[in-house]
């Protein structure tokens, strides 16, 4: 049975090419602002800023 808690799945989307490259888990109680991380984008072929775009079920 799945855990019931405060962690949710969110997708990280590249701000340059708008492609979703990563899915990460986030604690919605401790981190209430949107995530913004510098990650590698396969579309741009360089490190770009990725931000939280949508919540996944």
TrEMBL record:
GO biological process: translation
One GO CC term on file: cytoplasm
UniProt keyword Ribonucleoprotein present: yes
Keywords of this entry: Ribonucleoprotein, Ribosomal protein
GO terms of molecular function: structural constituent of ribosome
Superkingdom: Bacteria
Matching Gene3D superfamilies: Ribosomal protein L33 (2.20.28.120)
Keyword Ribosomal protein: yes
Residues that span the membrane, as ranges: none
Annotated NCBIfam families: PRK00504.1, PRK00595.1, rpmG_bact
Family: Belongs to the bacterial ribosomal protein bL33 family.
The name this protein goes by in its record: Large ribosomal subunit protein bL33
The organism's taxonomic lineage, starting at the top: Bacteria, Candidatus Roizmaniibacteriota
